[in-house]
Amino acid sequence: MRLDKMLSNMGIGTRKEVKAMLKKKLVTVNDEIVNNGSKHVDSETDVVTVSGEKIVYEKYIYLMLHKPAGILSATRDHHTSTVVDLVDPYFQHFQPFPVGRLDKDTEGLLLLTNDGDLAHRLLSPKKNVEKTYFATIQGRVTEEDIQKFKTGVDIGENKLTKPAELVILRSGAISEIELTITEGKFHQVKRMFEAVGKKVTYLKRLRMGEISLDSVLQKGDYRRLNEEELAYCEEVKMA
């Protein structure tokens, strides 16, 4: 990779700004000053510094965000804050996007990445990646609902929903449940409960595949995926 491209990709500056840094002899490769941006470097073996600071090249980033309500699952919007607005400018320059969408009023686990292959595989219905949600429901959730969800319900599309696992945590005028699905249709959880005559009043995603929302993360906070979570992502990409 060209040195100037590597530095601009890492958000060190624009091509013009990087050129100025090279001219001022602020850039070294393996302890040697380099003033030619066309020099090719190996991002894995060469040691590159700018003003004495080592630059570690990253192609992809993987973040876990605890999405709060009121924020759009989008990369940009002219009127409302998006999930990308919640992360540091360093991560923003990688142009991350949300893996799937949570409704504006829905909270919980959201992955942000610039790895399109991973996102595609996590979201593909053919891969059967489980997504688990906690919800409060207006109305009494029953064993009958469990069986209906297990066989699929009609949410107004050509096919019934795929089998889903409904667990009742508390049943009453206001019920609490956990629901695991392997699809990601528009407003799916809400539409599934509407199909059985009930209404979702609160929704939070807890898990996607083997990645669970970190209980330490407060709403609006995020962190990089850890080694175990990254290993799972690699498994998904290899499958």
Helices and strands, with pairings:
Elements: H1 3-9, H2 15-23, E1 27-29, E2 32-33, E3 48-50, E4 53-55, E5 62-67, H3 89-92, E6 97-98, E7 107-113, H4 116-123, E8 131-138, H5 143-151, E9 165-170, E10 174-181, H6 188-195, E11 199-208, E12 211-212, E13 222-224, H7 227-238
Parallel strand pairs: 7-11
Antiparallel strand pairs: 1-2, 1-3, 3-4, 5-7, 5-13, 6-7, 8-10, 8-11, 9-10, 11-12
Helix pairs in contact: 4-7
Description:
With 239 residues, the protein is of the alpha+beta class. It is 24% helix and 26% strand. The chain is built from seven helices and 13 strands. The strands form two sheets. Strands 5, 6, 7, 8, 9, 10, 11, 12 and 13 form a nine-stranded mixed β-sheet that branches. Strands 2-1-3-4 form a four-stranded antiparallel β-sheet, with no helix packed on it. Helix 4 (116-123) crosses helix 7 (227-238). The longest helix has 12 residues, at 227-238. The radius of gyration is 23 Å and the shape is elongated. The mean pLDDT is 95.
Poorly predicted runs = none
Distance N terminus to C terminus? 29 Å
Mean pLDDT: 95
**Structural class designation:** alpha+beta
If you compute it from the alpha carbons, what radius of gyration comes out, rounded to the nearest whole angstrom? 23 Å
- Tell me how many strands there are: 13
Looking at the structure, what is the overall shape?
A: elongated
Q: N-to-C SSE series?
A: HHEEEEEHEEHEHEEHEEEH
Helix content: 10-25%
